[in-house]
Amino acid sequence: MPWMIDSIEIAAQRYGCRAAIIDPWNKISEDFDARQETETRWIGRMLDLLIQMSRGLSIHTQVIAHPAKPDAAFRRSPPDLYSISGSQHWANRVDLGLCVYREKTIEGAIRQTGAQLKVLKSRFQELGWPCSHEMDYDIERGTFKCIDFQTKLETELSKIE
């Protein structure tokens, strides 16, 4: 983690980098002694370091953290920020928490493309508010498209014609 923070600082100061994406979080080597510190405490310290760095450099930092595998009872429910393995700090410390949820990826032999973008937390109003948007996954491009926006746009355009 210290190497990553140094690298981000160098990129911001030397090259004008304005954003950093850490993907995925679970590939970060944990540099703590389990006899002296818990994983939860370590995650809290690392998030604090990232927040301080981001504010000090005036850059945007995204951390992509995948949830733990759900229990059978919750398998059909979208994960929340408390579902991320290792710490409740993901719900408490982040400014914006998003979830891309796909209930089914394959049904029978047909690939499913439906998805939801869920805004789980937004500390600042200008970043948005908790809500959900229906999305469609474009398999060929590997991107998501907001169906809600497309439907509203098409409705507005049809009024003009």
Mean pLDDT: 87
Helix-strand topology string: HEHEHEEEEEEH
Q: Which residues form runs of ≥5 with pLDDT under 50?
A: none
Radius of gyration computed on alpha carbons? 19 Å
What is the count of helical runs?
4
From the spread of the alpha carbons, the general shape counts as globular
The strand count comes to: 8
Strand content: 15-25%
Task: Give the terminus-to-terminus CA distance.
Answer: 55 Å
State the helical fraction.
25-40%
Largest sheet: 4 strands, antiparallel
Summing up helix and strand content along with how strands pair, one would put the structural category as: alpha+beta
Keywords:
8 strands, 24% strand, two-stranded parallel sheet, 161 residues, 4 helices, 4-stranded antiparallel β-sheet, 32% helix, alpha+beta
Question: In words, what does this structure look like?
Answer:
By secondary structure, this protein is α+β, with helices and mostly antiparallel strands. It contains four helices and eight strands. It has a four-stranded antiparallel sheet. It has a two-stranded parallel ribbon with strand order 1-2. Strands 4-5 form a two-stranded antiparallel sheet. Helix 2 links the parallel strand 1 and strand 2 (60-63). Helix 1 (2-15) runs parallel beside helix 2. The radius of gyration is 19 Å and the shape is globular. The mean pLDDT is 87.
